[in-house]
């Protein structure tokens, strides 16, 4: 599997350096509100550049036809297009009318891209930059080689890394919780290795369609790595990524990423998973997530308690955790989304801190949830990860692996505990609280320990 490269860091450095042009008009913690949407728009611009002329020709023919959307997508070669005569480069030809022309350019995008741009709440920034005389200067920086985001230069996977790296820097400048958006890719790779460890036979067949769901999907990093891994096992397999995300910016990036890759971007939903589940009644083959730690759910209390009264007809029949920490609500959401064993069953990999493992006396909500999981033999393993692995916390973290397919296997009636706390390499330079990495060799070692469980 691909790993993060110096090329990605360099490209992120160059794009982030464009923020220097915002100095004076914006404060450092506001830079990301401009740089993030412009990076996404520039990526679309570069992708569409090769078929731009063909789209404009087709638009002349079909602009009054009800089926124009289908025909223009076919002309662009993608599920999106832009019918404006402008590109980033052509905008440079008329500095005096940059605001009107740039808005014309943005209005030329297909509706699915317009929806993404709208989530960034970007229109006000265009006016601000125009009024302060920097819109042309900033857009010009995005036409330089430093901001060339053509797919021939930056792959889709690399682009995902760049988005996440810029978000991380933006979150640091904003003194925000970067970890809520960003899970280290080596942790995702470990989760994915374990999640699919025994499914090679299924995934090597023909006409395979598998669904992967993340109830707190952020920029879609987990979905992307899962998709990449499954395709490495079986290029002909159809992978359907689905997810929900509450933060507008990260939702927009995730949806853009899925659109660019040719996935169904409509399967990325916005909104609060805990109080407004966009996938009610649906179930999935694989579920993986890194839900927020220690975030209270008081604002969602009414909706959650209402659903809890439904018992196991809803997601929260096993019990409710303390209102100060909602991560076990995401765990129960994942369990509720498992396919029945008659449909092939499901597997889950989810990251938690120590709270779901240790808090709550007998008879409390957390205790009842753990009891339900163990009595139904859903828990395969808990893997203790090294400390200082995440950007926003140095505390102990764990991967919980769950499955409803244990019956009749060596895992039936057992829970495997893996202490991987010492399996890490020190980083030369810390990133926030992240001082350690898990190497490829250590990922392989942990996967091997997990895989080689034997009867006692």
Radius of gyration, whole Å: 23 Å
Mean pLDDT comes to 91
CATH topology of the largest domain: the name is Rossmann fold
Instruction: Give the name of the CATH architecture of the largest domain.
Output: 3-Layer(aba) Sandwich
What is this entry, summarized?
The protein is an alpha/beta fold and 456 residues long. The protein folds into 2 domains: 6-169; 178-451, Rossmann fold (3-Layer(aba) Sandwich).
Summarize the structure in words.
It is a single chain. The chain is an alpha/beta fold. It folds into two domains: 164 residues; 274 residues, Vaccinia Virus protein VP39 (Rossmann fold). The protein contains 19 helices and ten strands. Strands 3-2-1-4-5-7-6-8 form an eight-stranded mixed sheet, with helices on both faces. The chain has a two-stranded antiparallel ribbon with strand order 9-10. Helix 14 links the parallel strand 2 and strand 3. Helix 2 runs parallel beside helix 14, helix 6 packs antiparallel against helix 8 and helix 10 packs antiparallel against helix 14. The longest helix is centred in the middle third of the chain and has 18 residues. The protein is globular and about 70 Å long. The chain starts with 5 loop residues before the first helix and ends in a 5-residue tail after the last helix. The mean pLDDT is 91.
Architecture blueprint of SSEs:
Layout (H helix, E strand, L loop, with lengths): L5 H12 L14 H17 L3 H11 L5 H9 L11 H4 L6 H10 L3 H9 L3 H9 L3 H7 L14 H18 L11 H11 L4 H4 L5 E6 L6 H13 L4 E8 L2 H14 L6 E3 L15 E4 L11 H8 L18 H10 L10 E7 L1 H4 L6 H11 L3 E6 L12 E7 L12 E4 L5 E7 L2 E4 L2 H12 L5
Parallel strand pairs: 1-2, 1-4, 2-3, 4-5, 6-8
Antiparallel strand pairs: 5-7, 6-7, 9-10
């Amino acid at each position: 599997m691909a790993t993060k490269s110096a090329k990605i860091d360099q490209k992120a450095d160059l794009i982030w350096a464009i923020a220097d042009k915002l100095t004076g008009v914006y404060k450092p913690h506001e830079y990301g509100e401009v740089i993030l949407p412009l990076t996404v728009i520039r990526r679309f611009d570069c992708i569409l550049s090769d078929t731009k002329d063909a789209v404009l020709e087709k638009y002349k023919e079909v602009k009054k036809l009800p089926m124009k959307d289908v025909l223009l997508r076919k002309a662009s070669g993608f599920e999106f297009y832009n019918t404006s005569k402008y590109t980033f480069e052509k905008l440079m030809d008329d500095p005096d009318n940059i605001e009107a022309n740039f808005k014309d350019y943005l209005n030329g995008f297909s509706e699915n891209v317009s929806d993404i741009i709208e989530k960034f709440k970007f229109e006000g920034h265009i006016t601000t930059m125009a009024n302060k005389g920097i819109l042309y200067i900033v857009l010009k920086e995005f036409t330089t080689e430093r901001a060339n985001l053509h797919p021939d230069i930056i792959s889709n996977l690399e682009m995902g890394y760049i988005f996440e790296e810029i978000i991380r820097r933006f979150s640091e400048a904003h003194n925000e919780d970067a970890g809520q958006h960003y899970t280290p890719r080596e942790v995702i790779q470990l989760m994915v290795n374990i999640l699919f460890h025994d499914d090679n036979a299924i995934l090597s067949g023909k006409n395979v369609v598998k669904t992967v769901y993340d109830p707190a999907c952020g920029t879609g990093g987990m979905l992307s790595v899962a998709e990449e891994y499954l395709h490495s096992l079986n290029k002909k397999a159809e992978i359907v990524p689905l997810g929900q995300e509450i933060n507008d910016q990260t939702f927009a990036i995730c949806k853009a990423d899925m659109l660019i890759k040719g996935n169904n971007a409509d399967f990325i939903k916005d909104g609060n998973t805990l109080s407004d589940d966009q996938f009610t009644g649906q179930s999935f083959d694989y579920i993986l997530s890194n839900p927020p730690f220690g975030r209270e759910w008081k604002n969602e209390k009414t909706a959650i308690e209402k659903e809890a009264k439904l018992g196991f007809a809803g997601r929260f029949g096993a019990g409710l955790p303390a209102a100060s920490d909602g991560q076990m609500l995401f765990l129960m959401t994942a369990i509720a989304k498992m396919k029945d064993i008659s449909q092939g069953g499901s597997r889950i990999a989810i990251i938690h801190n120590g709270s779901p493992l240790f808090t709550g006396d007998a008879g409390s909500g957390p205790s009842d949830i753990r009891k339900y999981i163990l009595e139904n033999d859903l828990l395969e393993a808990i893997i203790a990860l090294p400390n200082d692995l995440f950007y926003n916390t140095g505390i102990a973290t764990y991967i919980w692996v769950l499955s409803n397919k244990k019956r009749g296997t060596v895992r039936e009636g057992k829970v495997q505990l893996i202490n991987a706390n010492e399996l890490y390499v020190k980083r030369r330079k810390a990133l926030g609280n992240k001082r350690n990495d898990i190497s490829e060799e250590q990922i392989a070692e942990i996967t091997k320990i997990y895989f080689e469980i034997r009867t006692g």
